[in-house]
Amino acid sequence: MAQVFDRSSNALARASLVLSGLIVIALGVTLNSLQRSPWVTRQGQRPDQPVPFSHLHHVQGLGLQCQYCHTSVEKSMYAGIPPTKTCMNCHSQIWTDAQLLEPVRQSWATGASIHWIRVHDLPDFVYFNHEIHVSKGIGCASCHGRVDEMPLMYEQNSLQMEWCLNCHRNPAKNLRPTAEIYNMAWQGPSDRRPVWCTTTGVVGPTAQQVACVTTDPAAAGLQLAGLSTPGNSLIQSNPLGLDRSQTLSAVAATVIPANYVKFTSQEELGLYLIKQYHIRTANELSSCETCPR
How far is CA 105 from CA 45, 92, 114, in A? Predict the structure, then answer.
């Protein structure tokens, strides 16, 4: 019987198998890259908003705090988009005829909401709570970037699950004193910029139980973090009738100096704050059981 296939058919078959494998691998790499690209994550994109609101102007230029517009960031899972009234608190007095603000004035006159386009928009199946992150020492800039330097808002980080888990596996690298939560320019401690922290003894939210300063407490004459807390009876009663600064000086010598700890690296400070803020372990933070739903 004559041979049906030429001897070269074996080589062609092997080559086709190898080529098919390479195509599958290339397709997987392409899809993975596409899934991480700004085309999908919208990272770095600046959507066209009804009003070209500039965080650079309002935050860095005018000094507005984040909480003035995002009122629920400390007590809700949502930071909240400010109502038109928040804008009109100022713009009923200044720039009242600016063409750029016509949608704001129209919204105020009609009661219809401004249809802002959400920049940081997580999928519906993702549970994210602003309150717990803020109260546990995660600064605004850690997730949203230097908002105070953005003329137009954009998404600096991908906000994908991998990005979230990288922080949950090692939260120490992003933790900061709660007094610095809204400080966009905050930089972690280093040899040239050390940070001193101590416990305050305050009974209440865990974040209020730690006080951190960026100047040497000994050089600054800080005797006790509790001196500046509302619960200090000596300051509240003011038995000598002195002003606040004099009262602090008067009682400073009668109390035990605070046990401040000096930190010269972000990792050291983060590990300290993990303990003080009672943050869960990395395994617990990365577990699906941590999510309340």
Answer: 27, 9, 10
